[in-house]
Amino acid sequence: MTAEAPPAEVVDKVPEPAPPSGVRAWMSRHPLAAYAVRRFGLYLVELWGALTIAFFFFRLMPGDPIQTLIQSLQQNYIYNQQASAEIIARYRAEFGLDGNIFSQYLVYMKKLILHGDLGPSLISYPTPAQDVILRSLPWTIGLLGISAVLAWILGVVFGAIAGWRRGKLGSRIMTNLSIALSHVPFFFVALILVYVFAYTLGWLPARSAYDSNINPGFSLDFIASLLKYGLLPGLSIVVIGTFSWILSTRMLMVPVLGEDYLVYAEAKGLKPWRILTRYALRNCYLPQITAFGISLGFIFNGNVLVEQLFNYPGLGTTLVTAIQQLDFNTIMGVTDIAIFSVLTAVLLLDLLLPLLDPRVKYWK
Amino acid sequence: MRILTAVLRTIRNSPKLAIGLAILLVMVLVAIFSPLIVKGIGGSTDPLELAAYERWLVPGPDHLLGTDQFGRDVLAMVVSALSVSLQIGAIAGLISTVVGVIVAFVAGYKGGWIDGVLSTFTGILLVIPTFPLLIALSAYAKNVSLFQVGVMISIFSWPFAAKTIRAQVLSLRSRPYVDLARVSKARDLEIIATELLPNLLPFIGVGFASSALGAIFGLVGLEVIGLGPGGVIDLGQIIFNAINTGALTLGAWPMFVVPIVLLTLLFAALNMVNIGLEEVYNPRLRGVAGE
Amino acid sequence: MSEKPAGNAGERSPHVLEIKGLDVTYSTSRGDVKAVRGLDLAVRRGEILGIAGESGSGKSTLAVALLRLLKPPGQVTAGSVLFHPAGRSPVDLLKVDGEELRVLRWSALSYLPQGSMSSLNPVMRVEDQFKDVILEHAPARKASLGELIPRLLGQVGLEPRVARMFPHELSGGMKQRVLMAIAVALEPDLVIADEPTTALDVTIQRVILQSLADLRTDFGVTLMVISHDMGVHAQLVDRVAVMYEGRLVEVGDVRQVFKDPQDPYTQQLIESIPKMGRRAS
């Protein structure tokens, strides 16, 4: 889904008469279904395009992973003799590195799509890369998912209030703070937070995801430990994310406040809170839903650095380790998962939008 | 001359723009004169040389910001690293802007299927997480030149510039004077050069400033996790050294704090320029972005 | 027109609204502009009063000021507007604020905006836009909403299914009628209608004017109709007040004014309408 070309437009007229026959007739009878089908088709194209770009990008990168593998095997198993050409060829086949790049591509995509198989991981050979990734996935979903949603909710609410009370001192402070901080990279805040709260004050831990003395499980201690260890990395994302959403919500809010229906709501003598929530906010949070989907990739990028800085056992840390070790199947796997998750989230939000916004026309 | 007075008037009208530009100007001057400043700090010795001084000296009159694990003067390092960071920003900003402008013009002005393909492509690059690709690229790039690093980062930042500018091209394309130029059979290039480009300059400026900012911080981000391209010492590299060597516990706090403060200032300055320009040239935003 | 003699303060006044010496000023960077100057006008209970004048004459500013919807840089600089809601003590509309003003709105003083404006919330169903205002001011009617909303819609000639529709599914004329039905939902004392027929096509204008006249008969509301269109006044109103450059230049019985305009500006206004005066009221 591109930012400026959603296949939707706001209309002000009654639908035109149904076109004559066939597919188009069906589409005009089932506009929502037609929209969903089109949107899903676009999703498949985007997914295929992005996965393909990622595949060729990594394959064209210099470096020979098999040599690295052999070296690490030699170290681990005290493997004295030189690897024979036969062994190398066998590993090449196993890692999907035999044949020319296009046949490699076909094999890779086939395994990925049909079996969800990303090939063996190099660092933890012979564990498949997908298993390595699945181990770290929940951590990222927890950290990034909760932080991103929290930042969005806080940002939209405070942004709406900042717009509503524009001109007032509190609102101006909030707005100027948002201008100053809205695009600061997450990791930068992470550095400062670590410096202040972990290093100088010593209040909170700066590394790992939970206290290693506590057994993971559904105990109160463990959950408390999770929260304590997740606070700083979470804050790094939430603080900046909130400021960005405040700024953009306020920008959407101010024009809405000048709309006729707000004047009308005031003339109706409704309570201010009701006008803010039912009239103003309801008309400006919808674009922010689309914006949320589009921002996910960007948040993931920032999250990679935050996880690495806090040594948080999520996808980002796995990715960085994999890159350091030239574990290309895992690198590609993490990238593929990130692409898949972001595009799928955007798709789901786009499909959700017609249910929330009655104005939008979803057929052509 | 007319352009100059217009620029001056714009700056006078927007305190944000003026402050941002002033901070930037100071930084650029420091960067330009960094070789002289470094020389001034070191006197007869090169303060950036390994083991130029004793290691881990705390800040004092001889070394205002102390020395690092190799006995280099931290102030001298910071000054030259600032210059490197700014150069990366300038190179990557320039490349992203040029690519962005070309893509935006072709897509926005030509429209049709060309726009469809280019916009979808730009859109995919904007939405998917590209940072893994950048980390991988950077990790394998050893001993690259500053220019190559700039090029590398701009590969990932041009879509942002392209998106901003395309939206403006679309809104300008439908203006009456462009139609007029078309009717009078002016060539596309002529219309772009004489009618569109001057009106887009402020937005191109915004595109440049934001991609430069993105590039500087992108590189710092890579450096901070220790995966920066080898051979380039920018502000991020100094922060990484500070974290990695435990400089904070050795009393060498300037190695961490000073680069962070400089980057924050740089960030604030470029952000103020961006918002100032948008407010001046996009009256719809005036009083919307802030008061 | 009720012509009872004026009683004591608490009694039923023959007037719903008494405007005295109203001044509205817009402060701009190039000095102040007076949009309404020293306006005196009384609105009689049960009448339809028309406010005429070209654009820029201050008639819309007057409406906005009376509804207390004036936004900076607009400001009321002088005058009083005494409002006599039935069953409540009279209030100066310019002096009330906050909760007191909010309670007065719609149940006593309601507003009928131009249908072509986007006054209906685009993301709420029509019925919900009835509900919120009714429940705000008359929560006791909650149980009868299911019957009340279709009846109100029926009153302005709309089918009950319109209640389930969204504003973008309605035509301009339908929107205007929905707004009319909402305006009278709580039987207010006074409805201020700002250009109720502008931007509608001629046949629909006729129907809307008829419905407005019916509303007065059915609900006994007092209507203040602001329109630049002298034809609207000729067809609908009892009395007409003519504004020019912020001042009231003439006020009187609509037939009288059309037959024998006193002010040269009124004369011009009347002459500017093609074939007028045949269907006066």
Automatic annotation (TrEMBL), chain A:
Its placement in the membrane is given as:
Multi-pass membrane protein
What domain of life does the native source organism fall in? Answer: Bacteria
Q: Where is the ABC transmembrane type-1 domain?
A: 137-353
GO cellular component terms listed in the entry, alphabetical order: plasma membrane
- SUPFAM superfamilies this protein is in? MetI-like (SSF161098)
Mind listing the UniProt keywords for this protein, alphabetically?
Answer: Membrane, Transmembrane, Transmembrane helix, Transport
Membrane spanning residue stretches = 40-58, 141-164, 184-206, 226-247, 284-306, 337-356
Q: Which Pfam families match?
A: BPD_transp_1
> Which CDD domains did the record assign?
TM_PBP2
Q: Which GO terms describe its biological process?
A: transmembrane transport
UniProt-annotated location(s): Cell membrane; Membrane
The record, for InterPro entries, names:
MetI-like, MetI-like_sf
Describe the family membership recorded for this protein in Swiss-Prot or TrEMBL. Answer: Belongs to the binding-protein-dependent transport system permease family.
PANTHER family to which the protein is assigned, alphabetical: OLIGOPEPTIDE TRANSPORT SYSTEM PERMEASE PROTEIN
Protein name per UniProt: ABC transporter permease
TrEMBL record, chain B:
Q: Which Gene3D superfamilies match?
A: MetI-like
Keywords noted in UniProt: Membrane, Transmembrane, Transmembrane helix, Transport
Residues covered by the ABC transmembrane type-1 domain: 82-274
Task: Classify the protein's membrane topology as the record does.
Answer: Multi-pass membrane protein
Cited Pfam families? BPD_transp_1
UniProt entry tagged with the keyword Oxidoreductase? no
Annotated Gene Ontology cellular components are: plasma membrane
The entry's localization annotation reads: Cell membrane; Membrane
- Major location, coarse class? membrane
Its protein name is ABC transporter permease
The organism is Kribbella sandramycini
Automatic annotation (TrEMBL), chain C:
The protein's UniProt keywords, in alphabetical order, are: ATP-binding, Nucleotide-binding, Transport
According to its UniProt record, what is one Pfam family this protein matches? oligo_HPY
A Gene Ontology molecular function term for this protein is: ATP binding
The record's Gene Ontology biological-process terms are: peptide transport
Domain (ABC transporter): give its ranges: 19-270
* Stored InterPro entries: AAA+_ATPase, ABC_transporter-like_ATP-bd, ABC_transporter-like_CS, Oligopep_ABC_C, P-loop_NTPase
In Swiss-Prot or TrEMBL terms, this protein is called ABC transporter ATP-binding protein
Organism (species)? Kribbella sandramycini
